[in-house]
Amino acid sequence: MLVSQILKSKKDDGVVSIPPGTTIGRAAEVLSARRIGALVVSTDGKGLLGIISERDVVRELGRRGAACLGDAVETIMTAKVTTCSLEDRADGVLTRMTAGRFRHVPVMEMGQMVGLISIGDVVKARLDELSMEKDALEGMIKGF
Ligand code: AMP
């Protein structure tokens, strides 16, 4: 399965981004309101400056307490982001996620962000694929 197929199967394929300068407190509000685990830091929603996930927020809260909430997201975001392309195979992306211990990967096309896939998206797509394979095999055995 390709990354492009996973993006197509997602109900909402837009990427939720926040501009640099956004506070960590505001990022936590957006993560909570949108029920997502990571935000891309981007000025225009297309270029990629970094990624901030709930883990970054929780780690900083644990370290410094509420004092961190007024700081800008750049202070804790990951700037060296692993990305993938629409033509990448999903299992390869899953391997990179597992090896790098992160659960979100922005999808880039000609230097612009066109989507984001999470480990949950990849697992769901794989389970759907397995279920279709099972139905097809059952159909063959039962002669449908
Ligand atoms: P996550 O598992 O996605 O919540 O992220 C765990 C850690 O990896 C956090 O420090 C994130 O900032 C970082 N991270 C998330 N996604 C990526 C990515 N695609 N490339 C590099 N680091 C990432």
Describe this structure in words.
With about 140 residues, the protein is α+β, with helices and mostly antiparallel strands. It has one domain (about 5-140): CBS-domain, CATH 3.10.580. Helices cover about 45% and strands about 15% of the residues. The protein has a three-stranded mixed beta sheet. Strands 4-5 form a two-stranded antiparallel sheet. The longest helix has 24 residues, at about 120-140. The two termini are about 25 Å apart. The structure holds adenosine monophosphate. The site of adenosine monophosphate has 15 residues, from strand 3, helix 3 and strand 4.
* Lateral strand order in the biggest sheet: 1-2-3
Structural class: alpha+beta
Q: Uncertain spans, ≥5 residues at pLDDT below 50?
A: none
N to C succession of SSEs = HEHEEHHEEH
- Count the DSSP helices: 5
Average pLDDT across residues?
94
Q: Give the ligands present.
A: adenosine monophosphate
* Mass-distribution shape: elongated
